[in-house]
Amino acid sequence: MRNEEAFLNRRVQSWKRLEELNRRANAGVKLLTGTELVEYVRLYRQTSGDLAYMQSHSSNSDVVEYLNVIVGNAYGVLYRKSKRKMTAWLPDALYAAAYSVRKFAWSFWLSTTIFVLAAVFAYGVLKTKPTLTHHFVPPGFEGSFEQWKKGEHEARNADEGIAATGFYATNNPMVGIRTVGMTAVTGGAMGAYLLWFNGAMIGALTAEVEKTGQVYFLYSSIGPHGVSEIGGILLTGAAGFVMGFALISPGNRRRVDALKDAGKASFPMYMVALVMIFIAAPIEGFFSFNPAIPQSVKVVATLVGITAWTSFFMFYGRDRDPKEGEKLLS
Description:
- It is a single chain.
- By secondary structure, the protein is mainly α.
- The chain has two domains: about 1-80; about 90-330, no CATH class.
- Helices cover about 80% and strands about 0% of the residues.
- The chain contains twelve helices and no strands.
- Helix 1 (about 1-25) runs parallel beside helix 3 and helix 8 runs antiparallel to helix 9.
- The longest helix has about 35 residues, at about 215-250.
């Protein structure tokens, strides 16, 4: 009994010191100085030994419980995994997206070229042969074309805006997902077709609306959400082309390995494309087709969107080592 009492008297100050360091460390280990951190580790190990000794040689449950608490607390501080803030990954994710687009710029320009050529082609054909409209306008879209010719939007209440946003936010990203998948497995062929189809629709719509002098109304209306939505569509096609071309021309790798590597490298581009399409949904639901908002304001919003996305893809992370970008894409 005397031996136990002497042991407690020798150790109690160390235990109290560990308890004090625990309170400070729980607020953040970085709050401890280098000397205190060394002391903290030493006291943790010493007190762990004291706990084992007391468990084996003492019936004093209060002391054993006390030691259990302070040793467990110290263990949790010293060996817990550092928790990254939820936003800590964001800079790397944004950099990976911008770097991926810059690395595979050829695929984006390929998507853009197909889309624009289709629009120009459809517009040119319908300017000379207006009777061929049905070749460019799918069944069921005629009513939409006629609505655009009027040069006005029907007012939406809040519920209708929410419903429209919900539809765009679920339907449009799914179209992007299918575009990437089909483009990849067809070696780019299906992506080229889908981009051509969408571009031709824009060209045909322009030709039809021009008849009533509503081209400015058309483009100022689709511009605010179109910057993100069409940009996202072009990038989904681009990501699909990266994978599709890897499938066609794997080099010295097996096709499955080439496709896997291309998928990893283009994944950030694919994800930012879906984000762009998703962002476009509430803009389309509440802003672009809102008759209460002047068309001039919509033009400004379009220009802001173009500037913001272009600046992001061209300049974000330019000051970082490209090796970091390659590592993020691998």
